[in-house]
Design goal:
With 321 residues, this protein is of the alpha/beta class. The protein folds into two domains: 210 residues, no CATH class; 86 residues, Orthogonal Bundle (Arc Repressor Mutant, subunit A), CATH 1.10.10. Helix content is 37%, strand content 24%. The chain contains ten helices and 16 strands. The strands form four sheets. A six-stranded mixed beta sheet has the order 1-2-3-4-8-10, with helices on both faces. Helix 1 packs antiparallel against helix 2, helix 1 crosses helix 8 and helix 9 packs across helix 10. The two termini are 26 Å apart.
């Protein structure tokens, strides 16, 4: 049973908006493009898990995706967590192609592809840390007796896994996604006792959802990009050019003459992702390249946004994300 569904990550939305709003010649553009590509690949790897999770008994397991909770000291993020009456299982999904060599001596993951070696953080250490933090949180909510297991799941079936024969931990901790249902069945057979009742399982799932705190970072601050570098105006959804100009209730592309009635919506979404979650009439006119205060007012009114303040000091709360 899916308790918390997988959503398109806000962080990726911010990276995509940042790509749209920077000049191709911007010194950070290629870095952001690369980071965005990696994040999207990771998300697709997590999505690939859904097919295999579909083989699980629906009422026996509670599945939560993208959970971020506070252990009393630090926040920690879980790609997927599976709850049952007998145990909790953390899944850390990696969608890395090529040949992966797990180096237990230096606690690193080495990817070999196209005769090139690249080092990644050790996912085994990552899930062990997540395991520790989740058990710490469970103690806070009086569920310290519930066993916690963890697996690293490789999303791509074409990825080759290698390690030394002595590294037995890898064989138990790292699997391809196709093996997931069988791995869960094996864990299930290791535990004979129910630690939770049906009611307690539901309550724990809901408590985890309630304690989830989404990560909402300032993407411009992270990449040290001034707000002045962000391209303003409405972007054409057909040719990706800007600016689109407002005329007689429509947006018209200056380059390809594409016409849209609601092109401002995606522009305001970019504003909320990159600049601020609130906006004023003046700031909206500046960002959308609108001269008329009344036109801006009409657009703001049509969005039916929550607002605070009055007249020139009125602030609108964007909810487009």
């Amino acid at each position: 049973m899916i308790i918390k569904p997988r959503m398109y990550p806000l962080y990726i939305k911010k990276l995509e908006a940042l790509q749209r709003r920077l000049l191709l010649e911007h010194p950070k553009f290629e870095l952001i493009k690369e980071d965005c590509g990696k994040r999207i690949a990771g998300y697709r790897g997590e999505q690939s898990l859904d097919y295999h999770l579909g083989f699980l008994a629906e009422h026996q397991y509670h599945i939560l995706h993208d959970v971020r909770i506070y252990d009393g000291t630090h926040f920690f993020q879980l790609d997927t967590v599976i709850l049952s009456k007998k145990f909790i299982l953390i899944l850390e999904v990696k969608n890395i192609t090529g040949t992966l060599y797990f180096d237990s001596d230096f606690n690193q993951l080495i990817r070999i592809q196209d005769e090139k070696k690249e080092s990644f953080p050790d996912p085994i250490l990552q899930v062990e840390r997540q395991n520790y933090q989740l058990r710490k949180w469970l103690r806070l909510i009086k569920h310290s007796n519930l066993p916690v297991q963890s697996l690293v799941v490789i999303g791509s079936p074409r990825t080759i896994l290698e390690t030394t024969p002595q590294n037995e931990k890898i064989y138990k901790k790292v699997i391809h996604s196709a093996k997931l249902p069988f791995a869960i069945l094996s864990i299930e057979q290791d535990y004979k006792k129910n630690y939770l009742s049906e009611k307690q399982l539901f309550q724990l799932s809901q408590q985890m959802v309630t304690n989830h705190t989404p990560l909402n970072i300032d993407i411009l601050a992270q990449y040290k990009i001034p707000k002045g570098d962000i391209l303003k105006a409405v972007i054409c959804s057909y040719c990706q050019s800007l600016p689109m100009k407002r005329s007689k209730g429509k947006w018209i592309c200056s380059k390809c003459s594409f016409i849209s009635k609601d092109a401002h919506l995606s522009a305001l979404e970019d504003y909320s992702l990159l600049i601020d979650s609130t906006i004023t009439n003046q700031k909206m006119r500046e960002f959308l390249n609108i001269q008329s205060t009344s036109v801006a007012n009409k657009l703001l009114f049509s969005l039916k946004l929550e607002s605070s303040g009055t007249k020139r000091g009125k602030i609108y709360h964007l909810n487009v994300t």
